[in-house]
Amino acid sequence: QVQLVESGGGLVQPGGSLRLSCAASGTIFSIYYMAWYRQAPGKQRELVAGVTSGGSTNYADSVKGRFTISGDNVKNTVYLQMNSLKPEDTAVYYCNIRRASPRIDYWGQGTQVTVSS
Known about the structure:
Number of helices: 0
Strand content: over 45%
Distance between the termini: 40 Å
Number of strands: 11
Mean pLDDT: 95
């Protein structure tokens, strides 16, 4: 059973930066999408950023210009560079890797990001 292991979360002051990493414990074939989601207390999980196997990216409006997603289909890793962090970015962040065939969604266990002075 392949697992996704996240790292890089923590406490940071407003305006600071963090880099989240996510690596698969084994090989995932036929990846077509890699993404980061987040869930704040009392809110639904939301898509933060995603990248297709072809390199196309999409971002939530709230993070455009501040966050950058990158992924490596061969190494089965995905990163999220977060700059100019705001208190409203505080949440548990989850990585997601989506396999095309068969259709399987892999999820990480979540890493806490807290933005506070």
